[in-house]
Amino acid sequence: MEQDNLLEKEWHFVGAYLPPHLADFLRLYALSQGRSVQKMMMQLIMDRKDVTLESQLIEKAADQAYDHYLEKIKRQKLDGSQDQENTYIYQMRKDLERRKLSDEHIQQIITRLQDRLAIFRREG
Fold first, then answer.
1. Radius of gyration of the chain (CA)
2. pLDDT of 1
3. Under a CB-based contact definition with an 8 Å cutoff, are residues 11 and 42 in contact?
4. Which of 71, 61, 68 is nearest to 99 (CA)?
5. Is 33 helix (H, G, I), strand (E, B) or coil?
6. Which residues contact 8 (CB under 8 A, 6 or more apart)?
7. Average pLDDT, the chain
8. pLDDT given for residue 44 in this prediction
9. Which residues have a Cβ under 8 Å from the Cβ of 93 and sit 6 or more positions away?
10. SS3 of residue 67 by DSSP
11. How far apart are the first and last CA of the chain?
12. Residue 113 burial by CB count (10 A; 0-12/13-18/19+): exposed, middle or buried?
């Protein structure tokens, strides 16, 4: 596995709380496979990464942010002004930073969101 070649100092901690029955199942599954939970999690992610392109995830995140923006306009929480749009984009960037996405991914999502908003303004 390519990740095994990285130095541990280059690794990032990604944590999650699981219900006890799922945590127990994961530990049991790792034991039955003769692997650590960490290696099992890495393998699960690598297997999924092989069939899911990052670009698809970026597009989906931008779509969700755009849909959320439209929903706020529909509910009249935003009026669609340029100032409110800029504030929304700023808040979205901060939310993505809190989720600890890489700067590269954040920029890609924001750029695609801005593209969608520009089309919305032109068609609006």
1. 19
2. 45
3. no
4. 61
5. helix
6. none
7. 88
8. 84
9. 106, 110
10. helix
11. 49
12. buried
- Cβ atoms of 113 and 66 within 8 Å: the answer is yes
State the Cα angle at 114 between 108 and 116, rounded to 5°. Answer: 105
Query: pLDDT category, 7, cuts 50, 70, 90?
Result: low
With contact defined as beta carbons under 8 Å apart, do 66 and 116 qualify? Answer: yes
> Position of tokens 């690598």?
46
Distance between CA atoms of residues 32 and 94, nearest Å: 41
| Residue carrying the six token digits 């989906």 | 60
- pLDDT of 16 reads 84
Q: How many CB atoms lie within 10 A of CB 58?
A: 19
* Model confidence pLDDT, tens digit, residues 19-59: 999 899 988 988 888 899 999 888 888 888 777 788 999 99
